[in-house]
Design brief:
The chain is globular, with a radius of gyration of 15 Å. A 3-stranded antiparallel beta sheet has the order 1-2-3. It has a two-stranded parallel ribbon with strand order 4-5. The chain is built from 6 helices and 5 strands, in the order E-E-E-H-E-H-H-E-H-H-H. The chain has one domain (2-152): Nucleotidyltransferase, domain 5, CATH 3.30.420.10. A hairpin with a 4-residue loop joins strand 2 (10-19) and strand 3. The protein is an alpha+beta fold. The protein has helices spanning 36-50, 65-68, 70-77, 95-108, 117-132, 146-152, and strands spanning 2-7, 10-19, 24-31, 58-61, 82-85.
Length: 153
Amino acid sequence: DITQVRCREGWQYLCVILDLYSRKVVGWATSRVNSADLVIRTLKKTWDARKPDGSRLLFHSDQGSQYRAKETISWLNNRQVTISMSRKGNCWDNACSESFFAQYKKEWMNNLNELSRSEMTVQSRFYIENYYNSVRMHGTLGNVSPMQYELMN
């Protein structure tokens, strides 16, 4: 999913891909523009990090134009990924991503002064890689971090 953060220069968008098994953010990217390009850059980072068998994957998103764009659909289809989209106007279908963004803003971004776009990217990296994935405990995972959960299972 994608969220927006107000920066000094205007909006900056953060796209994340979560592994629903471990709740780990397995790929993320930021951009000044909320577009299919942002989604595809995030998918590429995720693909490079996980090197999955696409035929065994389900990619779930909302019905935003970035996800319905022919470039995004083609990228996923070329890797044999099954595409799943939320019901129109139903944020509950994407609850894990919405929860991540709520925590990201509440625990991290709201505690910072207004940032530049580059500072927002640095802070997002720190939150995701140094806190959320490796330290933050999740009740749904037995009160361990996503990285700990993946190591245990």
